[in-house]
Amino acid sequence: MSERAVLHVKGRILVGPDEVRSELWVVDGRISYDRPAGARDVRTVDGWVLPGLVDAHCHVGLDRHGAVPDDVAEKQALTDRDAGALLLRDAGSPSDTRWTDDREDLPRIIRAGRHIARTRRYIRNYAWEVEPGDLTAYVAQEARRSDGWVKLVGDWIDRDLGDLSACWPRGAVEAAIAEAHRLGARVTAHCFAEDSLRDLAEAGIDCVEHATGLTDDTIPLFAERGVAIVPTLVNIATFPALADGGESRFPRWSAHMRRLHERRYDTVRSAYDAGIPVFVGTDAGGALPHGLAADEVAELTKAGIPPVEALAAGTWAARKWLGRPGLAEGAPADLVVYGSDPRADVRVLADPRRVVLGGRVVA
Description:
alpha/beta
């Protein structure tokens, strides 16, 4: 397109769940709600328009074995993009994906650095594996390297116990979270089970991933402290298969995983009802493929979250939480166009009509 070429987007522009406009214009990659003067080359797309979807828990540059080559990471990011996920919070990766920042055709990534886990208490080749005395130093290191987030592994299977258990003593996480906050970073943690959650919440953690271990005891604490959760229900769906695979060696762990899976929807709905912020994340990039943000929104509705609120958890509310704009005047034109109203039926998210990134139609 020419220098003054613009993209005209019309139909139903969902600026927010209850704020709808009829059109917007994209000039030099940014949103304007005023028709630009002197526009000559105008391309028009129409439909129901959302800000680019958010996957607040994925792993670009990672597969089930560890770091992947750049060409594989590129395919992961493109898969998310083509599915409409244009803002990704990379919740831990051993790969350096900074090179993607220079690619205008790839989603925006907010990085949490590399996972920090207890020695021999996580997936091989994923994390820095350290002991409690070194936790604060590694948190500070990743806070400086990241985009304002640090990722802890809060619990994992303890082979001596044969079950999930907390990885860190209370004092260690208190000191580490305080240091991250001093450096301006927020902290999140992988947690499947129950027993790490109180210590993490009372230590000031900002978010918990999965959070399947929330109970009537810890849900009010999370709500009071404003601790967000990213349930990754598309990943929790794999728990029965994991339990079957570990049954012979760790029957206690297997039974625990099945219980967590069985109550997953009730847990998420209870958290939502209590006022805990809930956001969309898929855990793609480990064992799961990328491009599943729409599936996770649908899973949140299965848990009983109203469709508009589930939609917000992967669009407007998620972008605000992560400090990124939506369809605001002057914001980067990262948006997705659908054929019908996603507020009425979130399943439409699985079939984007157009994906616009930085003002360019890319899919």
